[in-house]
Amino acid sequence: MAAEADEPKWEGKATAKLHKPTPQQVWPLLEDFCSFHNWLPTIDTCRKVEGAHADLVRYCASTLPPPPDGGVVKWCHEKLLAMDPTQKLLSYEVLENNMGFKSYKSTIKVTAIEGGDAPNGCQIEWSFLADPVEGLSCDDLVDYLDISLQGMAQNMEKALESS
């Protein structure tokens, strides 16, 4: 146990570019903290547990491919720490979970991509600070975050194109 306390925190980030939508179009999709299952391909369920605004706690879960005896549900409760519509960012932390997180705080931010004289799409940056997770490396967590974020960006682009 003492070795865990001495381990440095993991820090990482992933970025996804959305080529047509503006930050003003993407932000409302993220601002609904309990709708991430609509965008993240790795999440089946995302719903409010309790609270409102900065005290909001959500439940997120995904069912992993079923082994012979049925699917495994990975879940967590996440608490909203900050929501800033002007900066287009939100921060949250993982509370109870069955994924091995002891401490995990994350920030998601939407910014414009500047190109020439006019904005050219936007990007979503998802950063985190976490205690090491048994059975994973920091690179594994960054890779998972990156794959998830790329899928999220694609789903958001499709939804915004069809609306």
TrEMBL record:
InterPro entries: LFS, Polyketide_cyclase/dehydratase, START-like_dom_sf. Coiled coil: none annotated. CDD domains: PYR_PYL_RCAR_like. GO terms for molecular function: protein phosphatase inhibitor activity. Gene3D superfamilies: 3.30.530.20. It comes from the Eukaryota. This is Lachrymatory-factor synthase. It comes from Sesamum radiatum (Black benniseed).
